[in-house]
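User: Quick sanity check before I run a bigger batch. Here is a single chain. Can you write out its predicted 3D structure?
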Amino acid sequence: MKGRVKVSNLSSKRLLSTRPILFFSLIMLLKSYLAWMVIFEGGPSWTTLLKEIPFVLIVYCLIEWFASKRKLLYYLIANLTMTSILFAVIMYYKYYGVIVTYFALAQVNQVTAVKNSVFSLMDPYFLFIYTDVVILMFLMFRKNKAVEWKNSFKRKMNTRLVVGLLTVSLAICLFNVLPNRASMNEIVKAEQMGILSYEAYTIFSNKEIDYVDPDQISQEKINTVKKTEPSAVPVLQGTASGKNLIVLQMESMQNFLVGLSIEGQEIMPNLNKLVKENSYFKHFYQQVGQGNTSDAEFVVNTSLYIPPRGAATQMYAGKELPSLPKLLKSHGYDTATFHTNVVEFWNRGELYKAIGFDRYYDAEFFGTEDTVFFGASDEMLYKKTIDELERMDKNDNPFYAQVISMTAHHPYTIPDNKRLIKLPERFDNTLVGDYIVSQNYADHALGKFIEDLKARGIWDNSLIVLYGDHLGLPIYSLDRHEKDLMAEIYSREYTYTDMINIPLVIVNPDKTAQPAEYEQLGGQVDVLPTVANLLGMSLDDQVHFGQDLFNQTYNILPQRYYLPSGSFLSSQELFMSGSGFEDGKHYPLAGDGNNDENKATEDEFERALELLNLSDSYVNHLPNWKKEQK
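Assistant: Done. Predicted structure follows.
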């Protein structure tokens, strides 16, 4: 009996060594299992075999059919290509929480600027996915190694077997892909189709957007879809009329930092003081996409939604965009934006022209005297910005300045001289601990800037808006210990609602209502109309998808990119789509209780999708701006 088992084992090994299509398919199956383990909630299962291997077999059957020479080389190239796709999917998911596509990979040139962030997310075992590639490359270039195995590639497989295997594999792929094309959730779609089949599907689908006719797009139409009505007598209208506008966009600042203390240490004392003394919106949410910080700049300054794919700065920068800078310039304002990174990053230079800033200040202006990551520190940002603001303030006309902080950037490993607090030992060497320490430094720098604004007489004559640009601690990037730390902070599980929740504080010295904490739901798209109301400027002739937060009680916020297509926030909860509405998930806004009664409705789901289509259509129909005139 033992002899038979031994013969059987030898036969299996020989079959694998002499049938490269089986050998390489087994390797790709193991790699697929690794990717499924990282990405999908249920992990790999027996269905992984049926979802991934048919696509792999199609590739290898084509090699067997067409390649009469150098088959080993073609197998290695195919293996390396599919391995790299799976590796990119893993790493992109750990950073963004979405399934990467060829279109997003086209922006890979941006990765070099955030390489520290990418490397920080790489678990060492991810690199095992390339182990076979290294070994096989070594064997390929050693003439006297694995001779029998190399010779096996010269043998041609039976043509009928190849055709049969190719036909069956293609049929299974089509069976996986075709019924699942309508699925809204990209992660669900990739799981239903298989990762490699999904990647191929995104290349060949080329689904055209059904744009709305421009004659059908109006502010009245948008308000009807949102089910909001402009107030006849808006509260606080014009209370900041004639004032400067300073917009502070804070890097990776999430809302849980407000009021946070850890063992007696107040993490954000300056932010907390602003919250207590001014208008604070605790149910405020990001609406960014692949462009992250640059997308936040776009949404806040245009009150439009991000594009269906790609960063707004790259997809929309060629359009004549209605914007906050243009609105303010029509009322005599001087406008400028301050950012310590190079202006070419995410195509910002073109965006700034499209939305009409008079000037921008970037890395060249802020220098390299005190840098963190890829730009000057927040202290240097504020130190050099305040001098420019003082100069602008001395002019007869008011100014609009958008100031973008950067030091608290992922992966939050700031220099020791900027680590101003010591957290308990359980936070050491964790993403959560580094994040909190870097935000504490950002708050320290912010406090000094506020002092300077007051000392130079700018504060009292300015409307100040502060908000976070995007999330800082993605759920999918945290390990078990880090999730436990977040549960300690929240006194419950850390959820998707918490992840995209950012603070909004509006400071209107001596003019606003009493300091208040607002329950109203808001998003970055709402900043422009809220500011316009306070400044007393009409938006009657400017299409916008946001609303004045001081004069509305209901809101609906469509989400893209960080959440699956079809996801949205209503005034009651966050809805995350599944294949459609029926199998979607519901999360309370506060995130601190069971939501037995699902309050988000299918009508809201349809209206959220309609709003996105209206925004896409509106921007698509805008004329291109003339570069030679800028």
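Residues 71-96 form the longest helix (26 residues).

User: Great, the batch can go ahead then.
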